[in-house]
């Protein structure tokens, strides 16, 4: 019925820009111009929140051999990930220097206490380096750059002015700064130094798609797309395709 990328943009009041979504299942970088998605310039990364939760569990089991996966249920791991993990602005440097690991202990609520050290910033890193999970291909900042690069030159700057972050996996502390830093580096590296992407990272971006949908549905013009009971009874399910295609 609607593009999640477009609804994410709508949540900020924009109808043109680049939507960078990182949710539970996948990540996308989708250019939107005048309310229309450019599918040929859309890129997908099969690493997101659920993948990171499984990765965190594997990291914890590897670091604490006495732990079993049964002692780390999925819901508890997801809660731990949201509560304790963050994105490093200097991953290799932080990894080499134990003084920068910021260890913390957490109770899992089942009598099990877990200590996290480097796992706190290693967990979300595959969004930026999918190779950590054995996946080929670039991370989300490079895909965001490729999406802008594939757009016509006349539209590229306008879209770069509104790079909207959306989805729960963008809420890690440090995520927006790291993406901004690497996206600018991609522009410089590939000869687009004049292109200065501007990130829009609103506090409620974890629910950006829902927020955008509620805003669009509240517009007076949206009433033209309503389907009444009488219309459905007369035409049946094919009416959905006529209205929303």
Automatic annotation (TrEMBL):
Key words, A-Z: Signal
UniProt-listed Pfam families: Actin (PF00022)
Cross-referenced InterPro entries: Actin, ATPase_NBD
Signal peptide: 1-29
Top-level taxon in the UniProt lineage: Eukaryota
Record flagged with keyword Signal: yes
TM ranges: none
PANTHER family: ACTIN
Family: Belongs to the actin family.
Protein name: Actin like 10
